[in-house]
Write a structure and sequence with these properties.
Structural class: alpha+beta
Number of helices: 4
Shape: globular
Number of domains: 1
Strand order of the largest sheet: 1-2-3-4
Length: 132
């Protein structure tokens, strides 16, 4: 009976940790991106946010502006919250104490690595209940 209880506890522990995996990976990927932005490492920036490759230089600089502000903040002041979006998309909400939050969409590439996306998509469900 002890073995069965230990097995059940182990399974529950593994099952409860599984959903947190994408959240940790996305937060880690975003921190790598901010470090690259702060260092000005264009190769890492483009690896984490490949959609920037298709932008003109002026548009790319404008898109990186809010991330430069975030990269200049103390990392302990950043609050990162990841939630599920539409389909395979996750939305990262980045907040700094006293400022409004920034929404950053993430999708998995073909190799399974999380990367920033240019499109935010979320699903909202509306229940329709017929009147009697």
């Amino acid at each position: 009976m002890k073995r069965l209880g230990a097995c059940i506890c182990s399974c529950l522990l593994i099952w409860s940790c599984a959903p947190a995996q994408p959240q940790r990976e996305i937060a880690g990927s975003f921190r790598v991106f901010l470090t690259a932005v702060k260092a000005g490492d264009q190769q890492k920036i483009q690896a984490e946010a490949p959609f920037l490759l298709s932008l003109k230089m002026a548009d790319k600089e404008k898109a990186l502006e809010p991330f430069r502000l975030l990269a200049g903040q103390d990392p302990s002041d950043l609050e990162l919250r990841v939630s599920r979006g539409a389909g395979a998309t996750y939305i990262l909400r980045v907040s700094v104490k006293g400022h409004e939050s920034l929404l950053v969409p993430f999708v998995q590439d073909r190799q399974g690595k999380w990367e920033m996306s240019a499109v935010i998509s979320e699903v909202q469900h509306i229940d329709v209940v017929p009147a009697r």
